[in-house]
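Repro case for the chain-ordering regression, as requested:
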Amino acid sequence: MRRRPGIGGLQTAAAARDQYRLLGENVAKLKTDLMKEQLATFRSQLEDFARKHKNDIRKNPAFRSQFHEMCAKVGVDPLASNKGFWAELLGIGDFYYELGVQIVDICLVTRLHNGGLIKLEELCKLLNQRRKSAREAVSEDDCLRAISKLKVLGSGFEVISVGKRKLVRSVPTELNKDHNEILELAQAQGFVTVEEVERRLSWSSGRATDALETLLDEGLAMIDDGHRDGKRQYWFPCVSSISSYVGAETL
Amino acid sequence: MQKLGDFKMPNFFNYPPYFTLQPVKDTREKQIQLWKELILDYCRTQKFFIIELEKEFPLFTNPVIERSLSHEARDIFLSALVSDGRAEWMDKGHRKCLILWHRIQDWADLILRFVKDNGLEDSVMTVEEIRSGTESRGTELHGIDRTVLMRALKLLEHKGKLTIFKGTSADDEGVKFSI
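-- result from build under test --
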């Protein structure tokens, strides 16, 4: 269509634009309303669900974990705000804050023995020991959730994977790949020797010694020269139970 | 849990590296701290007063994990107790160590309480009686090491709470309380 010149043409074009905009807004509003309605329905159903299974969520760690998974799938974070209805409904926010504080405490107490690295398993065990007066059992999943909340504080808490195990780090030490491999190797017996590291990881002796020395300096390893064969063993309290054992007595 | 008699050993006792002196400062400090506590606890509950470094001592060896403390380690742990005032070397060569889970002053206080509890304020007792007589049975004084007891008595004598008098032999040294 040929554009006609003159003021009339411009006015018509502007009017058309307005019409389109109105129409567009209507459509968008309709969609939004629909979404809002769906969301409200969904929310109320989720609330109903949570209310109905409140006790299960509180008391049963496996159920709690599944509930969290479900929430995550639909993009709801029950821990996002302590003031939200989740907190009021379940007291779930407080629960994780409480866990967080206790986790920090356990990590601090055991730090002297394990250099600030502790098996998730151990941490969880200690946490349960400590909370034995509380009714609810705490799972490893709960620990992980509480730790992820701690991250917000920039406190340097982090979960690292070493082999199949998960370790919780509470010191800002950066573990490089070599250190990780040694820790993984040490999980079998609780200790390694320089020879074993060289043989199993095909490293030069310098590389093995360097990495082990660093781990010693960081307080993550201890030496043992008392074995019959006279070979120095490097023990890692963080992969054995000793860290918690020693610490648990003072908890 | 490993036990020595009725004494429950702490868990670190079963962890081999605690038997080797740790080269890293922080780790060693923690190690020394744990050993100090263990030595004091053990000696208090088992009534050990003297540790001889070169002799067998239940804490220095753990047969279960086949580890024992080196002479150097024993010396370092005990010296740490000495500098805390909880032990004293009995010779220059650091071969014998007197363990003071109660300080001499605390032992002296215990003696005073014992005297008051038994109404012995103006009595005479032999040193041996204090250590093994019927009056002290069931108290912490029962079975106290003679050296420690004499030190505490001398402290009290110095304060004018009693007089020590010599008999014909070491066995019948006596004490006249005047509290």
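Ordering looks correct now. The interface with chain B takes residues 112-113, 191, 216-217, 219, 222-228, 233, 235, 237, 240, 242, 245-246, 249 of chain A (CB under 8 Å).
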